[in-house]
Design a protein that fits this description.
mainly beta, elongated, 5-stranded mixed sheet, 3-stranded antiparallel sheet, 8 strands
């Protein structure tokens, strides 16, 4: 169980950056999602050889992402849990001026 987590929002871009990965020579990185290999494509891409980019993020993207880095010196694994949430947005902005309602009057918001 990974000790770190990140929050992604449905419909937005999410980047998973495991910056602790380094080495000389720079290691080969293999990504997994919930223990299965990740298929890169139009929605899920690798950026700068170490950052996994998901765009747009979907509810099904929630889970454990793990990067295994390997070079001639050995290998290391780093993981995080990606939690997906819906971003709350105002459909209509509240009025800039307060509205006053007399006692027993009806107020519509």
């Amino acid at each position: 169980d990974p000790g770190i987590f990140k929050i992604g929002y449905i419909g937005n871009e999410t980047e998973i950056d495991l910056t602790t990965i380094s080495g000389d020579p720079f290691p080969t990185i293999v990504w997994t999602f919930n223990g299965e290999g990740i298929q890169l494509g139009d929605r899920i891409k690798l950026k700068d050889d170490r950052i996994l980019r998901i765009d747009p993020t979907q509810a099904s993207d929630e889970g454990i992402y793990q990067a295994t880095a390997t070079n001639k010196a050995g290998s290391a694994q780093h993981a995080l849990y990606l939690k997906i949430e819906e971003r709350l947005e105002f459909i209509e902005q509240p009025p800039s001026e307060p509205k006053y309602v007399a006692q027993y009057d009806t107020a519509v918001f």
